[in-house]
Write a structure and sequence with these properties.
532 residues; alpha+beta; 10-stranded antiparallel beta sheet; globular; binds protoporphyrin IX containing FE
Length: 532
């Protein structure tokens, strides 16, 4: 008998038997066939070969063999939780988005925090950017705000993203280091991409080693648009501000925590929520119009720049509360699929070339990661509002259209004809006027790579500045090639001379010449009118 194989007593809670009965459900196969013995495969004789006929064994093993799916190509290590978003100030003056109209109304939310470069099993306290991806299940469909904890990005154009990530991930021949920054490839790429220097200042600061996922800010990074019922649009930057305050650890603390508990951040979030200590963030918006955009020293379409809060104050309009852990990590946190493209009517994109590229990227990767085009049928990804369309079939289709018509236009009546478009309520893109020659150039307005990097550095307290210098010395000390170290320091000279001197000294390097405007390699193209 099955229970013969257990010594008694051994099971938790004083239970000694391992069989169903009473409140304990009967185990079945995935086909629902009750299982009599889950310990022994079917054999010919007690010591004989296992039989192909053993459907239970075959199904169990087949399913186990297929448990893994690809980890995310970036942001592989993440941790999610459920909660809600509540509007505290109406934005009806600037947007028709239903979720931003009525004060006090709540919609369900799911948030996934992540590191960017490490693999799924990497340590939580790595020096890295953190993802801050929010899915709001609104009455007009899912709104995904797929942000980070740093308000700017390394690059300005999505075409450089595969190179950035290749350079940051383990090197292809040796498959190390797991750490994003501490290697030749990363700093080689950075030192040849001066537009990265602003974000490098942030990632070398304590911002890149948060104390807790609960003590991080979040940023939409790109300029988006809010759009009212008349089609008038206002530019917007989105912010999440932690009620817990912004807190980081120091590098020597991070190193120890990683060693003792690589799950420190996920454990902290799990414990806090289960203890009823629900983390909360305020949603803030920076709103501005074309006149401000034109007057701004930088380009609002350039994701390596932020808009100083002194120039455009952050208006707090809502709160996000996380109050429930997942039932199952894989089903929810691992299978959740965010996409910058998912915005309800009343929210729209800007021409930020990084955002435009992201809009193409996420669906594509999720088709592969989640095994087919029907990943919106997975409960964590399914909208929680009425939904009707004629998309059908494909692997794992669980929600095919009902009735006779699966096309449109059709002349079947309301009963059989299915859903119809609604020009008034449906999503309408802002009717911007676009013009200009088709060409691969970067706007001159994207050219200043150092001013905001300097602004960030000098805004830091002396101890924070010291941490930045120490971090750069530590990271560059892992770089083998002296020319890469030196080229990086040549950019620091354009940011802050003291920082450059400190780092050069820390590395034992002679101080290099300041970097020339490296943009020449990208922008030494004929002016646009010469091309037309
Ligand atoms: C995840 C692409 C820039 C935030 C991902 C994934 C891809 C991707 C392919 C994996 C998605 C999945 O498997 O579900 C890109 C490209 C970028 C870019 C092509 C630039 C051209 C950014 C920026 C941010 C960001 C600027 C922040 C503002 C995130 C976050 C995730 C993510 C938070 C994780 C989402 C999750 O938790 O599931 N990105 N990304 N990405 N990206 Fe990006």
């Amino acid at each position: 008998g099955v229970s013969d194989v257990y010594a008694e007593p051994q099971a938790e809670g004083g239970e000694t038997h391992q069989c169903a009965g009473g409140d304990v459900a009967i185990m079945t196969t995935a086909q629902g066939i009750p299982v009599a013995d889950n310990q022994n495969s079917l054999k010919q004789g007690a010591r004989g070969p296992t039989l192909l006929e053993d459907a239970h064994f075959r199904e169990k093993m087949f399913h186990f063999d297929h448990e893994r799916i690809p980890e995310r190509v970036v942001h592989a290590r993440g941790y999610g939780a459920h909660g809600y978003f509540e509007l505290t100030e109406s934005l009806s003056d600037v947007t028709r988005a239903d979720v931003l109209q009525r004060v006090g109304e709540k919609v369900p939310a799911f948030v996934r925090f992540s590191t960017v470069a490490g693999s799924k099993g990497s340590a939580d306290l790595a020096r890295d950017v953190r993802g801050f991806a929010v899915k709001l299940y609104t009455q007009e469909g899912n709104w995904d705000l797929v942000g980070n904890n740093i308000p700017v990005f390394f690059i300005q154009d999505a075409i450089k993203f595969p190179d950035l990530i290749h350079a940051a991930k383990p090197e292809p021949d040796r498959d190390f280091p797991q750490a994003q920054t501490a290697h030749d490839n990363f700093w080689d790429f950075i030192s040849l991409s001066p537009e990265a220097m602003h974000m490098v200042m942030w990632t070398m600061s304590d911002r890149a080693i948060p104390r807790s996922l609960r003590t991080m800010e979040g940023f939409g990074v790109h300029t988006f648009r809010l759009v009212d019922a008349e089609g008038k649009s206002t530019f917007v930057k989105f912010h999440w501000k932690p009620k817990q305050g912004l807190q980081s650890v120091a590098w020597n603390e991070a190193v120890k925590i990683n060693g003792v508990d690589p799950d420190f951040h996920r454990r902290d979030l799990w414990d806090a929520i289960n203890a009823g200590d629900f983390p909360e963030w305020e949603l803030g918006v920076q709103l501005f119009d074309d006149a401000f955009a034109d007057s701004f020293d930088f380009d609002v379409l350039d994701a390596t720049k932020l808009i100083p809060e002194e120039l455009v104050p952050v208006r707090i309009v809502g709160r996000l509360v996380l109050d429930r852990v997942v039932d199952n990590f894989f089903a929810e946190t691992e299978q959740v699929a965010f996409c910058t493209q998912n915005v309800p009517p009343g929210i729209d994109f800007s021409n930020d070339p990084l955002l435009q590229g992201r809009n193409f990227s996420y669906l594509d990767t999720q088709l592969k990661r989640l095994g087919g085009p029907n990943f919106t049928h997975i409960p964590i990804n399914a909208p929680k509002c009425p939904m009707a369309h004629f998309q059908q079939d494909g692997h794992m289709a669980m929600r095919n259209p009902k009735g006779r018509a699966n096309y449109e236009p059709n002349s079947w009546g309301a009963e059989q004809g299915g859903p119809r478009e609604d020009p008034a309520k449906g999503f309408v893109s802002v009717a911007t006027v676009e013009d200009g020659p088709k060409q691969r150039v970067r706007s001159e307005s994207f050219a200043d790579h150092y001013s905001q990097a300097r602004q960030f550095y000098i805004s830091q307290m002396p101890i924070e500045q010291k941490h930045i210098g120490d971090a750069i010395v530590f990271e560059l000390s892992k770089v083998e090639r002296a020319d890469i170290r030196s080229r990086t320091v040549s950019h620091l000279r354009n940011i802050d001379e003291t920082l450059a001197a400190t780092v050069a000294d820390g590395l034992g390097l002679p101080l290099p010449e300041p970097a020339k405007a490296a943009r020449a390699t990208i922008m030494d193209l004929p002016p646009s009118d010469a091309l037309s």
